[in-house]
Amino acid sequence: MNDKSMRHRYPVLATLLTLVLGLSSLSSGSLAADKLFDFGELNVDLSKVQAKPESAPVPAKQSPSQQLESTPQSPAPKVLPKDDEASIDTIVAEEQLKVAPVKVAPSTAGRQQVQYPVPESRDVIEVKIAAGSEKRGWFEEAAQRFMADPDRNSINGKPIRLTIDKIGSIKSGTLIRDGKSMHDGRNEYQVWAPASSIFRGVVEEAFSGGQLFETDESVARSPMVFVTWAPVQLAVDDKIQKSMSFDTVTEIFRRELNGDFIDPNGRLYQFGFTRPSSSNSGAVALVTMAFEFFAKDRGRYKLRMEDLENPSFQAYLAFMKFMSDQSKTSTGKLAEPLMQAGYGGQPLSTVYIYENLAVKLAFIRDANDPDGAKPIIRYPKYNLVTDHPYYVLRHGNSREQVEAARRFKDYLLTRDMQLLALQKEGFRPVSTEITNEEMNQVFGDFVEENGLIPDLIKASQVLIPRQNGAVIKALIETYDELGDPSGPRL
C-alpha cells in the first residue's frame, strides 16, 4: 500500500504520522522533491525582506512585473493577465457606495509606569502566556515537555508552572495596553505571544519609565493566504484573471451584485475573515485592504491617520464589512468548519487565514474526502508574513517569572520544538537547524495539489512594509464604528 492510499484509508493514523511524528525516511520521489525547495535561504532572509528591505539580498517586489521567475527547482505562482489592474476605486464609484463618515479619534491610552521587578514570595513560579489559537496546540505540548524536564522546570528549587491562555492577539494586547491585565499590583500575563508584531507599538507606547519587553524574538513564521475551494478558484482565475487579493474579492462581490455568480455550482460567493478587534488575522486583513487602496503604485507606502477619513476608503471598508463574514473571533474558529464540512457542508467559498491552518485544512480534507473539492492555497498579491513574536513582559512581574518565561522561549527555539511546530501545526520554523528534507515531509504533498509555495520571497508580488501601530489601532476602531453602506444594488 502506498503512502497516498494509506493516508486515505487511515486518516487518523496518517495525521499522527505526518503532523506529529513526521516520516522516518523518504521515498525516491520525496528525495527528488527536495530539489524543489530552498527553505534554508528563506529561514535566513525572509525577515530582512519584510522588515528591512534595504538590506535584503533580493529586492522587495513592488509590482507584478517584479514577480520572481518560477522554475521546476523553485516554483512561484503564476502572474495572471490582469494583475496590473486595480478596480477598487472604480467599483466604489460605479456602485455609488457611500457610508456615514466616521471621525478618527486620537489615541486615549494613558501612560503607565513600568513596574519591575515585583517581589516574589510564592512557592511556585507562575508563567501565564497569552497566545493566539493558532499556536495553542504547539505551546501546550511544549509546556508539558518543559515542565517534565528536571533540568529546566525549576529556579532555585521553585517549580515553574506554565499556563497557555488561548486569547486573540489584539484582545490580549489591548488588555495589557490598558492596564487591565494588572491585578493587585501583579500582571496576569508574563508572556504576550501574538500572531504578529503589528500591534507592538500600540502596547509599548502606552508605557514609560523602563523597558517593557525582556525579549521580542520570533518563534515561528506563517504567511497569510486566501484559501478557496477548487471549483470556485478555477472560475476566479478564468473570469477575473487576477491573483487573489482584496481587490479581487471586491470584483467578485461587484459581479454578483450584477447577477454574475462566480461559483460554477450556482452558490453565492461568501468570504470570511476574523473580527479585526479580536484577532490578528482580521487586523492584518484591514491593513492589507488599506495598503491595496492607497499604495497601488507605491510599494513602500506608510498608512497615515488622514487616510482613514478618506470618504471613498470608508465606503470601501463598509462594503467589505457588509459583504463578508467576520463572525469568528479567532482564525482557528474560522478554519474549523471548512476542515469538518468541506465545500458543500458550510457556506464559505474563501477564507483569509494563516498558511499553517491552510495546510491542516488541505490535509484533513484529503484524508477524509479524497475525491471532494480541494482547498486551493493562494498567496495574496499584497502579503504580510506573520512573525509570531514572543514578548516576555517585565511590567508587573518578578525576576523569577521573567527568567522562567525567557527559559521557555529558549526551549521553543530548540531544534526539537521547532520540528514539533512544523510537524504538529505546519508552522515554518525560524531555526536554520530544520532541514529541507524535514520541511518537505510536511509540505511536499501540498505544492502541486493545493498550491503551496515553498519560497515565500517568491510567493507574493508585494511584501507590505511595517506600519505604524497607532494607525493600525485607529484603523480597527474606525472599521468597528462604520455602519452599513448604501448603494443602488445594496
TrEMBL record:
<feature type="region of interest" description="Disordered">
    <location>
        <begin position="50"/>
        <end position="82"/>
    </location>
</feature>
<feature type="signal peptide">
    <location>
        <begin position="1"/>
        <end position="32"/>
    </location>
</feature>
<dbReference type="Pfam" id="PF13531">
    <property type="entry name" value="SBP_bac_11"/>
</dbReference>
<keyword id="KW-0732">Signal</keyword>
<protein>
    <submittedName>
        <fullName>Uncharacterized protein</fullName>
    </submittedName>
</protein>
<feature type="compositionally biased region" description="Polar residues">
    <location>
        <begin position="62"/>
        <end position="73"/>
    </location>
</feature>
